[in-house]
Amino acid sequence: xxxxxxxxxxRLTDFLEQNAPNFxxxxxxxxNSTAGAGYEPWHWVFVGNDTYKNSTPLESFVIGxxxxxxxxxxxxxxxSGSDLAGGDGFIIPMSGVYFSGFYRNSGGYHGAIDIxxxxxxxxxxSKDGTITTALDGCPDVGFxxxxxxxxxxNYIVIDHGDGFVTRYLHLQNGSxxxxxxxxxxxxxxxxxxxxSGSSEGPHLHFEIIKNGQQQDPCxxxxxxxxxxxxxxxxxx
Length: 236
What we know:
Order of helices and strands: HEEEEEEEEEEEEEEE
Helix content: under 10%
Largest sheet: 9 strands, antiparallel
Low-confidence stretches: 1-13, 20-71
Strand content: 25-35%
Shape: globular
Radius of gyration: 17 Å
């Protein structure tokens, strides 16, 4: 029951009319699509045997900006359960589509990058460090404005020393492979991606903090362009 990107009709409404009888789906339209905000219009479509009503979407797609000729998507879980090889520097912590960047302007503030990926996608430690927070208990499918764990949903925080901290938000409940106090190596599978907390679709909200200040992760890890794909383990 997998739909390839090439099968998408030109109009999203056509897609829904043709597939709604056979598939469950959910859509999200971010309001903050101001030019220069690092955030472009996009749509989520969850597909898979009418299971979204049971909060268990099987497939997740990201359809790119209507003004763009390209439509990047992810259509299956990227979960192997295997750790990645470690090394120096920071790595991209999850494979998927980079759809929202770091920005601070009159339109708002977003101190992280967001990587879209199906529920159940592996999330890896970006660098060696110590788990300082591993907090779950939130439903895997959240909603905008959810206050579960302060809106972060199920999340993990790693202290890397030298003033650096990373945060991994909106993870899957019960998927954590680490506990507070654990020492982890770069590439360790921390848990799985989901849409817990204040979230409109399954994705990883990834922060890099230095001396208490949120940094633009794209200055530290290779983000590429908005609505482009990224691969876990890649580094600058």
